[in-house]
Amino acid sequence: xxxxxxxxxxxEIPPIxxxxxxxxxxxxxxxxxxxxxxxxxxxxxxxxxxxxDYYLAASxxxxxxxxxxxxxxxxxxxxxxxxxxxxYLSAEFLIGPQLGAxxxxxxxxxxxxxxxxxxxxxxxxxxxHEDEPGLGNGGLGRLAACYLDSLATLEVPALGxxxxxxxxxxEQQIRDGxxxxxxxxxxxxxxxxEIARPERAVxxxxxxxxxxxxxxxxxxxxxxxxxxxxRGVPHDTPMLGYRVDTCNLLRLWRAQAVxxxxxxxxxxxxxxxxxxxxxxxxxISKVLYPNDESPQGKMLRLKQQYxxxxxxxxxxxxxxxxxxxxxxxxxxxxxAAQLNDTHPAVAVAELMRLLLDDHGLEWxxxxxxxxxxxxxxxxxxxxxxxxxxxxxxxxxxxxxxLDIIYEINRRFLExxxxxxxxxxxxxxxxxxxxxxxxxxxxxxxxxxxxxxxxNGVAALHTELLKRQILPDWVAMFPEKFCNVTNGVTPRRFxxxxxxxxTRLISEHIxxxxxxxxxxxxxxxxxVDDPEFRxxxxxxxxxxxxxxxxxxxxxxxIVVDPDSLFDIQVKxxxxxxxxxxxxxxxxxLYQRLKANPNLDIVPRTFVFGGKAxxxxxxxxxxxxxINSVADLINDDSEIRGRLKIVFVPDFNxxxxxxxxxxxxxxxQISTAGKEASGTGNxxxxxxxxxxxxxxxxxxxxxxxxxxxxxFFLFGLTADEVRELKARGxxxxxxxxxxxxxxGVLDLIASGKLSSGDPNLFRPLVDGLIWHDxxxxxxxxxxxxxxxxxxxxxxxxxxTWTRKSILNVARMGMFSSDRSIRDYCADVWNVxxxxxxxxxxx
Length: 840
Ligand code: 26W
What we know:
By secondary structure, this protein is α/β, with parallel strands linked by helices. The strands form five sheets. Strands 1, 2, 5, 6, 9, 10, 11, 12, 16 and 17 form a ten-stranded mixed sheet that branches. Helix 4 (about 50-80) crosses helix 5 (about 100-105) and helix 8 (about 140-155) crosses helix 35 (about 815-825). Ligand 26W binds near residues 295, 379, 385 and 486.
């Protein structure tokens, strides 16, 4: 029921701006707000409150200030039914801890620090206390979060739609050098950032069968009779932009049983059965799949995908029809939906189903609306990561959608045959159904046919996507393709995480740069100022000390902040080649063992990252990193000149203190394998120099910062392909290169694995005889390049100049630029200011 207030009653409500305890941004208002929440929400006196009480109270105080903007932003949207809104559909959002980032975006970081200090509480302690929502695996999920930050900052109306997993990515511990996975319990102390909206729940159907019937009008229609219904309950987290009034929403769906308790079963004593339905329904949003890069055809995963997509599309339709007074035929005018990889690709069939079955549109109209709504971003070239679902499984779970996909396919292939008569091979390749043996639904093909735009995430990636994965699609729909190079938010990954550098930069070029990152170019002339360079180094030194303290706490390992911090943090994967990094470390080790007085540059090697629980080779690499650490760290002959650290449980929070402390960023994937990378941008933005291959966004980073400020090594993607075609023989390289042989023999010797001399044998044999990621081919080039790194490190002033130039030239890698590209090339949306009469 909607209620209308009469004018007199409405006038009684104090204007929002008078309620300063809810909205005030000064230390005094914040102090009172925190005290209020402590007392009335947590039921605590300041004197007896726990750190968690304070964390929650401060967070609620901040949330009030977010929702003030959130409510306003929603009003503006309702007043502007003609404005197009972005719906970013993603199975993952790795948003990181919220308190610090929100304080930065609101501009009240220092005010809150002062408010809390009156209570004897350190803001840093509260920020450290927050458990981040690990609702993603890696790059793809973190990118979605950076994009939400930029969308709001650019005042583009947008919603993120995803799943509110009860358990996010596992917590990683290291025991005896091995990765152990523990359940992530990010919700256990409460989540102050979200608001559940049970009244906005929607029902999602699964299974059953379809029925055809003739409408009164004579139209043939389809009715889906499901076997199961699950409720999706939205949980909203506000996403405020930086120093603007626009506050968008991240809307995550939790699965809830429609009927939570079966009294009939309970009353006849079948207790287990009475709750069974509840348990199976709610399993859908229980846990994030921890697999990065290789999907398995699991029913639950398809259920998750359909669940959040159906919730999202229903929610969008409802808003369009009710709030915007729209019609189903104009859905695409209101919404631009982006498919973050193929995980939400079933949205194509779901929107078709709603338009056809629920709203009675003709096929052609429904198809036009669907294509105009959807855009598809591809995030990986690895063939094993391209999702397919067995037709049988798909049809069991989504019978109506399978019908629709068949019909899309029938019409589509008819078109292909017209353009390429007689080319049956092409038709088989482009079909939405793979019919080689058992039949599979190809989700990438569904996403391609159902979208008006298809993009890769870096220039090289888009090129390779067009050449290797989707050439048939380029031939037929060249106009659909574009590139949008990834970006990262400078608010979280510089302003929040590197306050020292932020202050130094702002002192010299003003405070506009966080939203105009190109302005960092203003730092270029300062490379000639020795005092500026000295202060630049002092900031880096402080950040390294901060990391050294954390490393000591977490691992017990003592590292020297004066050594070169050489860092590789990212998911552990063979194509990312953490083990190539190890080959370099062991090469240095053997040199020192042969000549203990060799004058080498002291280095601290830092690793971090999770391996998919079922990916044995990746887990063995973690074990090897730790074994190398054990061998070298305590070797008295090495005298601390080489230190190796594996930081457990790398996540967004850890990244925030690791990136600012790096001197050297390792971006050493086999060329052609890393779609973009975004860690590469975060390091460089914080003044690290990069050692990297010509892969993903490294290529564009190098072009921007200048080839003389980037350490390049290794084969190009084309050279890798040629070498593979010629017949690559890693064994020959092993035979010829004595240093490499020495290192591989050492790993295989059992000296690194006293418990089990054969432990690393398969890894070494794999490299010598197969080496699918070309480590041996790139080994010497990498070693030589690392020599250049060391030589430059000894020239402190030149190193500092290059570090400054890296930061100065990172402007294009702001996610603001990426979002502007999407707005212009994919979504056709414009910013909408929060003042209704003044859209900016
Ligand atoms: C379930 C299987 C699965 C899981 C995750 C398949 C594919 C994925 C993702 C596409 C993997 C991913 O995170 N890709 C990364 O996306 C980043 C953002 O575009 C890029 O920067 C990384 O290079 C890419 O590996």
